[in-house]
Amino acid sequence: MDPGFTGTVDVPDRRAFVFQEPRLLSWKRVVDNVRLGRRGASAKLHAQAALEPELLLLDEPFGALDALTRIRMHVLLQELCARHHPAVLLVTHDVDEAILLADRIVVLADGQISLDVDVAIGAPRMRADHAFDELRSRLLAALGIDELAEGARA
């Protein structure tokens, strides 16, 4: 709780979570995992609605993936968002991933917002783009990383 702020947050009923670690029961179908813990006739309806969320919360979902699978999952997430239009909150420690996927990036340092920036780079976003590189440097600086100094030490 942040003592300097008050208010309410409206969270839609149709929301989904993607965690860092695998949380699914591998022997169950996806819909059965989603309805886990729910009983009755509404359980199946709830599960189906959760597969088209209005809010998607992602907690470092790509962190344990190899590079090629990570790229594929980035594309899948972009396709799902284009099709279903959920609001998405992605937590990541990967600056490039944030630039590739986000419309807005908020950097936290010591529990405080140190930078809040809209990503004004058109699609498709390419790492070789000058605007991508400029935003990357700005984000790294907000995180206390000086690329030139780090490169000189390597």
Task: Characterise this structure.
This protein is α/β, with parallel strands linked by helices and 154 residues long. The protein has 2 domains: 13-91, no CATH class; 93-144, no CATH class. The chain is 38% helix and 18% strand. It contains 6 helices and 5 strands; from the N terminus they run βααβαβαββαα. It has helices spanning 30-34, 42-50, 67-84, 95-101, 130-142, 147-153; strands spanning 15-18, 55-59, 87-91, 104-109, 112-118. Strands 1-2-3 form a 3-stranded parallel sheet, with no helix packed on it. Strand 4 and strand 5 form a beta hairpin. It is globular and about 60 Å long. The termini are far apart. The model has no long low-confidence stretch (mean pLDDT 87).
Key attributes of the depicted protein:
5 strands; alpha/beta; 38% helix; 6 helices; three-stranded parallel beta sheet; single chain; 154 residues; two-stranded antiparallel ribbon; 2 domains
Strand content: 15-25%
From the alpha carbons, calculate the radius of gyration and give it in angstroms: 18 Å
Low-confidence stretches: none
- What is the string of SSEs from the N terminus onward? EHHEHEHEEHH
Strand sequence of the main sheet, in spatial order? 1-2-3
What is the averaged pLDDT score?
87
Count of folded domains: 2
Structural class: alpha/beta
Q: Which sheet architecture does the biggest sheet show?
A: 3 strands, parallel
Instruction: Kindly state the percentage of residues in helix.
Output: 25-40%
Shape label: globular
Number of helices: 6
The count of DSSP E runs of length 2 or more, i.e. the number of strands, is 5
Q: Quote the distance from N terminus to C terminus.
A: 40 Å
